[in-house]
Design goal:
The protein is mainly α and 94 residues long. The chain has one domain. Helices cover 36% and strands 9% of the residues. The protein has a two-stranded parallel ribbon with strand order 1-2. Helix 2 packs across helix 3.
């Protein structure tokens, strides 16, 4: 069970809905909130922002993101815990 894991983001990373982020938060703050709840260091947040190609937009509010940028943020969140398993449900369009 996912809930039974002491640090589930280290086990499974998932992107199920790219728009499941508070629109008033920046990409950085969204990832930091996830990181804090799983004892993930800020350096990993910086790394996944870079890996997803959204480091330059990290301080912008998510409500201004295009669908593609939202998907990149979702992928960054899925990779945040450096999980053994990653589940991506329709991570790209077109």
């Amino acid at each position: 069970s996912y809930a039974a894991h002491p640090a589930p983001l280290h086990e499974v990373g998932a992107l199920l809905e790219a728009r499941s982020v508070h629109p008033g938060r920046s990409a950085f703050h969204h990832l930091m909130a996830l990181a804090h709840t799983h004892s993930i260091p800020r350096s990993r947040v910086d790394a996944v922002l870079e890996l997803a190609g959204i480091h330059e937009a990290a301080r912008k509010r998510v409500k201004g993101f295009s669908l593609g940028m939202g998907q990149r943020l979702g992928i960054a969140a899925a990779l945040l815990g450096d999980p053994a398993t990653v589940i991506l449900d329709e991570p790209v369009n077109g």
